[in-house]
TIGR00341 family protein
Amino acid sequence: MRKIIVRGRKEDLEEIARELGDRAFIYDDRIELYVQDSETEELVSRIKDKLDLRYKESIIEVYKPEFVISPASRREKAEEKTPVEKLVEMTKSYASLNPGRSVVTAIAGVIALSGLIMNNAVIVIGAMLLAPLLGPIHGFAVNLSVGYVKLAFRSALNLLFDLFLTMVFSTLFAMMIGLVHPLQLTPEILLRTEVSPVYELLAVLLGFASILSLSRGILESLAGVAVSASLLPPAVAAGILLVISPPLAVKSLTLTLQNVAGLMAGSLAGVYVSGIRAERYYEKKVARAYLARSLIALTLLLIALLFLSILAG
């Protein structure tokens, strides 16, 4: 529920009063009305069309009352999605560098490394369960959708940092293992060198589905495992292949970047479809601009990576 107060010239207020009809409370110097959250943007736009903003007395104020009892409030339907404020609060921590999360991701990478080297899929799956890679993707999408651009890109950088750290640890451990035991290209490693447009599409769909589950309060553990499956093993394989076969490492790295870009693009599409929006007008404007630019940039990156995978293949 929102409270809108309109101040302006008498002739403007009279025209706005006719436009709004019985839903407005009309006073000598202002008009007040209460509207549902979903109606706020449309009504403010209609009021702006009638209000001459060249005059300093022309003002539109929008408030969120702490408590309102009215017939309109009883008609408001319960939303299935999680409140935007709660989503932002849940994902805000992913914009900060968390040493604990990075260490857990690195440990998961070392576990995945042993599974890839031993050609043991069960160990690799266990590592996926441990890696906390879903949070930064949600942090990127949710914060960008509400206009918190800095928090969004910090979340994305934290994800890339964790993956880079995982790759570095994988390379170092692979070098140490190689000193005492010859490393071989196992089927599990080679599986992470296969690049395909299908993987890009799957990453986009996975990012989209993970945001839908978040916005509707559905258990995220399965989505988290799926996201880790698309990011952790290819990054670890790239680290191993830097020691065994550097040319193949390019393919694993390309697959990792494809999945990162696909997950982010899908998550942005997810927040748009889920209706996760900023509440303030100026934040909405910023969010729309950056959301569009980010989607275009990620789409171009996916196309570039696709061509790179074709050339590398």
